[in-house]
Specification:
The complex is a heterodimer. By secondary structure, chain A is mainly alpha-helical. Chain A has a domain of 203 residues. Helix content of chain A is 76%, strand content 0%. Chain A is built from 21 helices and no strands. In chain A, helix 12 packs antiparallel against helix 15, helix 14 packs parallel to helix 18 and helix 17 runs antiparallel to helix 19. By secondary structure, chain B is mostly helical. Chain B is built from 20 helices and 2 strands. In chain B, strand 1 and strand 2 form a beta hairpin. In chain B, helix 8 packs across helix 13. Chain B starts with a helix and ends with a helix. Classes of the chains: A mainly alpha, B mainly alpha. Chains A and B meet through helix 18 and helix 19 of A and helix 5 and helix 6 of B.
Chain lengths: 476, 472
């Protein structure tokens, strides 16, 4: 099978799911399980090496590259989609409540099909090597997200989030297209693989080029949640259905970073443009770190806290991009998937059981369900960057390359202060779980899917925390 | 062999969480650890070290070794661990958490001292901190939430600064192995030394970053207070000796005046604060902060002259002695609370009449902590003061270290004042309401106390038993 067919298969699978949804009655959340099973097959296909007999055809080659990094990001996309689908199944109670308003879940079927299309878009994005294909795949993802964010139509928060995401997303798309146009104007082609060569010559207009790159940085800053385009994140994350928030926070961010790295890596490698781009990236990183961490400190809502923490992590990742340490960035995103999903799974469960996202809803969880509390403790420790968890290595690699590349001391100080602030607000959750008395001391039930997923994620966080080599091997 | 020292408590802790009998497993594990440590130290061939690569680039290995200072710190850890699992009163129904956390802390501390790789040195210490925070927050006494939150924030902050320092140092040396640590370029030394002093200093409660310590020890469950004050706090000093002095001796020299001023803050300022304490546990907590000043004095002497041969043994001996004596004091303070129901010094009195054995042990530990000759702390403190003057010849003008040493000598008076006053008010004089019916320490509680007390005596009379490990 040719490598590029995998995205087509994914889209086809999504269409089949829509058909199943339209022609079956009964429990809609079953579709989520079917979709997760189908994506697991696609995941296995991704781990198999591409056959050497049938390369990507010529007409596709310019738009599509099948390399190890692209595969890594596809794996991230598929795994996070599977986890989103599984989380949605356990989240169906809340979904039903806010779509039709009664016990009838007939309006929730699409919710389990849409992530598959977003997944196809994310996979295309991972392989895209041309500004045009990047743009098309990015739009496939974004438009799917517009629908999913606003899916709980009887919930004002979800609708507000949808509108905000739509307007700001459209704005950022505008920036992106405009930026692509300027770069095309300056370079004469949209094929990124030719840029290194063109930059070596002098047949391009540098100020036009830099202006285009600035526009693109702004547009992608929106996707990854970097200052100055981060304002949508807290509201949209808080309003969106929890599985979609997790999806936005992991897969959408990972894809955003991959695109960012694909587009600017030739410019960062060239001496003529690297200085100015690097400066802008480092300033963005510093501002993002400060904003995300300082604003997270005062949050009392767990979902909003995770939103700010997601901004904060974008700051670390931008630092990694600026130092051109793409392996570290990819590693960070992989470990970020494990810990963020662990946190969101617990959050989705609490939301279903307690009907609240507030930190108070976590009070006394250590007594109500010690295993769940332990899982969230590990996830929070990993997000904070405690050693021997996967989260530590991500930060460690980024700091290491920042120090080695001579990033200026003010940014490093900001980053270290950010880590310290992170300890404060992540451990606040741990504190609530263990040190405060529960409102309702009855034991909490743990659904089987959430239980299995959490066990796997915990093992992943701890295993990669002691032995990070397997993820690094995937990136080679 | 060395890996077993970490794995025994770690596996026992996991086993306890999984349903093994808690107290029994903890005792067995800590006894086994003492045996393994004795064996590893007595036959150098079998303690040759252990290495397992976890990451190729950068090259990070889980490598363990037991030589010199780390041998002494490991002895301290296993002894205090055994005493800690015997000490304190576990609340009904929380045995799992109580004993498993104690063992987790012990495993982390032993791992940190055994590691010969900067990364695992740091990581094991963090591993030990998390159960410390949780235990104080969940099972602590008094204002536990406030105290636990304070220690969490302070130590997390300290660890981050420390990580920055370690990363910067290893970026220059290009390797994480202790054996590759060497003096880094002079231009970077001041920064690295500053980061390490602040980072390690916070973990050791160096003035003015000390305010987490006393309330945390006062509200911590007894084994946690013993392990943290006795063992974990030595991590920072150990780090300054084996990493700080090695990578940035010039930097340490640069900051010498500051170290001197701050350590006097520990000895004099915190000493005066200790005199003013009204509760036994807060007094002990503050006194442990105060005594860190003496060990910093040895480090200051070493910074002033890296060839000072007496400074390292002085620091290490005092670390060991202080670890044992403070653990004994915390253990006995919890017995006092169990027998009388209070730790307010004003509400105690005459305990020596109803509980003579307890009074004897407490007196012994108190005297040790003041620095009475014949007990381990005396040997350590005297060596520290000698180290302070080792580089000075009569007639020469005195340097920072010498002046600091002279002022620090007053600390001995201060500690005599608070310890003797507390002893007189709690154990002597007429019996009061709380102590009328107090029973004496019973056999089970005697075990940890005697282990620690005998260690204090033996090392006090024959310090070489500990210091011999430094020579090879």
């Amino acid at each position: 099978m040719q490598a590029h067919l995998i995205e087509f298969i994914t889209v086809g699978f999504g269409l089949v799911l829509l058909m199943i949804e339209a022609f079956t009655k009964g429990n809609k959340s079953q579709i989520g399980l079917v979709a997760a099973a189908g994506l697991t097959v696609i995941l296995i296909m991704l781990f198999c090496p591409a056959p050497s007999c049938c390369p990507v055809p010529e007409w596709m080659e310019r738009f599509y590259s099948d390399n190890q990094t692209a595969r890594f990001y596809k794996i991230i996309a598929v795994i996070s989609t599977i986890l989103v689908l599984l989380m949605s199944v356990d989240f169906s109670k809340v979904l039903t409540k806010f779509t039709t308003g009664d016990d009838d879940d007939s309006a929730t079927g699409e919710f389990y099909c849409l992530p598959v299309f977003a997944c196809a878009g994310l996979m295309w994005m991972a392989s895209a090597t041309d500004l045009v294909s990047i743009f098309v795949s990015l739009e496939l993802v974004t438009i799917t997200f517009y629908v999913m964010v606003a899916f709980m139509r009887r919930n004002v928060g979800s609708l507000e989030a949808g509108v905000k995401y739509l307007i700001l997303g459209a704005l950022s798309t505008g920036f992106l297209v405009y930026g692509i146009a300027w770069i095309y104007g300056a370079m004469g082609t949209t094929d990124i693989s030719l840029y290194a060569e063109i930059l070596a010559g002098d047949s391009y207009n540098q100020s036009h080029l830099l202006f285009g790159i600035a526009l693109i940085l702004i547009a992608l800053g929106f996707k990854v949640g970097a200052v100055p385009m981060q304002l949508w994140i807290p509201d949209v994350y808080q309003g969106a259905p929890t599985p979609i928030t997790a999806f936005l926070s992991v897969a959408s961010k990972a894809a955003g970073f991959l695109v960012l790295m694909t587009i600017i890596s030739p410019f960062l490698a060239s001496e003529l443009t690297s200085n100015s781009i690097c400066t802008v990236l480092l300033i963005m990183a510093g501002a993002t770190l400060l904003y995300g961490n300082l604003a997270a400190i005062s949050q009392s809502n767990f979902k909003r806290l995770l939103a700010y923490s997601s901004i904060a992590h974008a700051g670390f990742l931008l630092m990694g991009v600026a130092t051109q340490d793409y392996v570290s960035v990819s590693f960070y995103l992989g470990s970020y998937l494990l810990m963020t999903f662990a946190a969101f799974f617990v959050l989705a469960l609490i939301r279903s059981e307690e009907d609240s996202d507030e930190l108070e809803a976590f009070n006394g969880l250590g007594k109500r369900n010690p295993a769940l509390a332990l899982a969230l403790t590990v996830a929070m420790a990993a997000l904070a960057g405690v050693p021997l968890t996967a989260g530590f290595w991500g930060k460690f690699f980024i700091f290491k390359s920042a120090i080695e590349n001579g990033v200026s001391w003010w940014l490093l100080s900001i980053a270290f202060v950010s880590v310290a602030a992170g300890f404060y607000y992540y451990l606040k959750v741990v504190k609530a779980m263990y040190w405060h008395e529960p409102r309702d001391p009855s034991p909490m039930r743990l659904p089987i899917i959430t239980k299995c997923v959490l066990v796997i994620l915990m093992l992943g966080i701890l295993l990669f925390g002691v032995w990070p080599q397997p993820i690094l091997d995937l990136l080679k | 062999m060395l890996l077993a020292l970490i794995l025994i408590p770690l596996l026992a802790a996991i086993g306890i969480l999984g349903g093994l009998p808690a107290r029994l497993s903890a005792v067995v594990a800590s006894l086994a650890n003492i045996l393994v440590a004795t064996y590893a130290l007595s036959c150098p061939a079998c303690s040759d070290g252990f290495s397992l690569q976890v990451l190729a680039d950068p090259n990070i290995n889980l490598s363990l070794g037991i030589t010199g200072i780390s041998a002494i710190m490991v002895i301290l850890s296993v002894i205090v661990t055994l005493a800690a699992v015997y000490s304190g009163k576990c609340p009904e129904g929380r045995e799992k958490l109580w004993y498993s956390s104690t063992l987790f802390i012990a495993a982390g501390a032993i791992g940190a001292f055994l590691s010969t790789d900067v990364f695992f040195f740091y990581a094991f210490h963090e591993l030990a901190l998390i159960p410390t925070f949780l235990m104080i927050g969940i099972l602590g006494r008094g204002d536990r939430k406030q105290a636990a939150w304070k220690i969490t924030i302070y130590l997390a902050f300290g660890s981050i600064i420390l990580l920055a320092g370690l990363l910067l140092a290893t970026a220059h040396t290009g390797s994480f192995a202790f054996s590759d640590l060497k003096e880094i370029p002079v231009a970077a030394q001041n920064t690295v030394a500053l980061l390490l002093i602040i980072g390690f200093g916070t973990l050791v409660s160096l003035f003015p970053l000390h305010s987490w310590a006393a309330p945390a020890y006062a509200s911590a469950p007894t084994p946690v207070a013993m392990l943290h004050a006795g063992v974990m706090k030595k991590f920072g000093l150990y780090g300054l000796l084996v990493i700080g002095m090695k990578v940035a001796p010039q930097g340490m020299l640069h900051w010498l005046p500051w170290i001197c001023v701050l350590l006097l803050g520990n000895i004099i300022w915190v000493g005066l604060v200790t005199i003013n304490q009204k509760r036994l546990d807060l007094m002990l907590g503050n006194s442990s902060v105060m005594h860190m000043g003496y060990i910093f004095l040895a480090i200051a002497a070493l910074s002033a002259n890296p060839d000072n041969t007496i400074a390292v043994p002085a620091a290490v001996l005092l670390m060991f002695a202080h670890g044992i004596s403070i653990a004994l004091l915390f253990s006995l303070a919890s017995v006092v609370e169990q027998k009388t129901g209070t730790l307010e010094i004003a509400q105690l009195g005459g305990l020596a009449k109803t509980a003579p054995a307890l009074a004897f042990l407490f007196g012994l530990a108190g005297m040790a902590s003041i620095g009475l000759p014949g007990l381990a702390n005396f040997a350590g403190e005297v060596m520290v003061f000698f180290a302070g003057f080792a580089d000075w010849t009569p007639g020469e003008s005195m340097g920072w270290v010498q002046i600091t040493t002279i002022i620090a000598l007053w600390g001995v008076v201060i500690s005599a004042v608070y310890m003797l006053r507390a002893y007189r008010n709690s154990f002597q004089g007429p019996l009061v309401k709380a102590t009328e019916n107090a029973s004496d320490i019973h056999n089970c509680e005697k075990i940890p106390s005697y282990i620690l007390a005998i260690t204090l005596l033996v090392v006090g009379i024959y310090p070489k038993i500990i210091l011999q490990f430094l020579s090879n």
